[in-house]
Amino acid sequence: MRAGIPEHGRVPKYYAVKARLEALLDELGEGGTLPTERDLAARFEVSRETVRQALRDLLILGRLQRRGRGTVVAGPKLEQPLSLVSYTEGVRAQGRVPGRTLIALDRLPAGAALGAQLRIAATDLVWHLERVLLADDERVGLESTYVPVQRFPQLGGEFDPDSSFYGYVRDRLGVRLATAEEKIETVLATPREALLIGTPPALPMLLLHRVSYEPDGRPVERVRSLYRGDRFSFTTRLSTG
């Protein structure tokens, strides 16, 4: 394969349409409204299903966004650093306005698996903080944070759900995060998650699992973050050391 074209040179019809659509997107610019499927099919002299397949690819790639009944050219993806910075800091660094919508803040038993990760008993209580993540009022993800109630007893009363949890534990409680273990995988959202984020269930998502630690190695939090694959990418710096 070279530039997406098989060596035998036979280009799938939808792929050729996709290439022409990408040129059209560059002409329209960010926020530009795409013509209807019917108009595009007539312009490219192909079936509407061929146009639909090309549009699906561009939606997954994050080049397009659904807006009401229309489709518009999307802006660049958010680039979140893979480091111990908060979602708030990462989004602000790109000139966007971060926000969150609270879904749940409740207490529940840790259970065996979560208890082992946080090094507490399975019967110990944890706070479960679930929030929809926003960037410029656009829903881009869903985050669930779990922390021991015994360690953060006042969380339910004094924490602002629209603010950074990292900022809260650092500035108000003096807790410093030093290291983290993180795993990233691609998944499809559940129907509930897709509804909360406002995306089709078939849209690929980036799922991050993180356990963060203090300098002495004590776990502070367990986080499950689900990000829209069409609106997010992640960056990191590598070295040989």
UniProtKB/TrEMBL annotation:
<dbReference type="InterPro" id="IPR011663">
    <property type="entry name" value="UTRA"/>
</dbReference>
<dbReference type="InterPro" id="IPR050679">
    <property type="entry name" value="Bact_HTH_transcr_reg"/>
</dbReference>
<dbReference type="Pfam" id="PF00392">
    <property type="entry name" value="GntR"/>
</dbReference>
<feature type="domain" description="HTH gntR-type">
    <location>
        <begin position="9"/>
        <end position="76"/>
    </location>
</feature>
<dbReference type="InterPro" id="IPR000524">
    <property type="entry name" value="Tscrpt_reg_HTH_GntR"/>
</dbReference>
<dbReference type="InterPro" id="IPR028978">
    <property type="entry name" value="Chorismate_lyase_/UTRA_dom_sf"/>
</dbReference>
<dbReference type="Pfam" id="PF07702">
    <property type="entry name" value="UTRA"/>
</dbReference>
<keyword id="KW-0238">DNA-binding</keyword>
<keyword id="KW-0804">Transcription</keyword>
<keyword id="KW-0805">Transcription regulation</keyword>
<dbReference type="InterPro" id="IPR036388">
    <property type="entry name" value="WH-like_DNA-bd_sf"/>
</dbReference>
<dbReference type="InterPro" id="IPR036390">
    <property type="entry name" value="WH_DNA-bd_sf"/>
</dbReference>
<protein>
    <submittedName>
        <fullName>GntR family transcriptional regulator</fullName>
    </submittedName>
</protein>
